[in-house]
Design brief:
With 138 residues, the chain is mostly helical. It has four helices and no strands. Helix 2 packs antiparallel against helix 3.
């Protein structure tokens, strides 16, 4: 599969569980791009709606639980940011239901752009907070 999006070193949090979940999200976004590029609109839409969106909910829940467990001071703000993105993502999913291949790629690009900013700033902050503070099982 051709990879359009990469999770680069500068986006890693240093928390293995969260970094692996971020990799899974990147893989799902790449699959949407690939399916869309192949003209497989229905499969791309299904991957976007049921694959990415359900995984984002899983990931946000896991991340919020992790931040609470380690006592990350910005946990409540981070939860609110997630809540706002969940609303936006559901709106994009509605748009994707009627969208063509270009619309699907555009929505995947918007999701990736959001994650790029979010992972690169907000998620790296909890990684920095944990460095030297959190145990491996935290």
């Amino acid at each position: 599969m051709r990879r359009i999006i990469e999770l680069t070193e500068d986006l890693l949090t240093g928390i293995p569980e969260m970094d692996e979940q971020h990799r899974k999200l990147v893989d799902l976004l790449n699959e949407v791009y690939e399916l869309s590029a192949q003209g497989k609109r229905e499969e791309a839409r299904e991957k976007l709606i049921s694959g990415i969106i359900s995984y984002v909910h899983f990931h946000f829940d896991a991340e919020e639980e992790f931040m609470s467990r380690v006592g990350f001071p910005e946990c409540e703000l981070h939860k609110q940011i997630h809540a706002n993105f969940r609303k936006q993502m559901l709106a994009w999913a509605e748009e994707a239901k009627e969208g063509d291949e270009q619309a699907l790629r555009g929505i995947a690009a918007m999701i990736w752009a959001w994650f790029l900013r979010h992972i690169g700033v907000r998620d790296r902050a909890y990684g920095e907070y944990c460095r030297g503070r959190c145990t491996a099982e935290a």
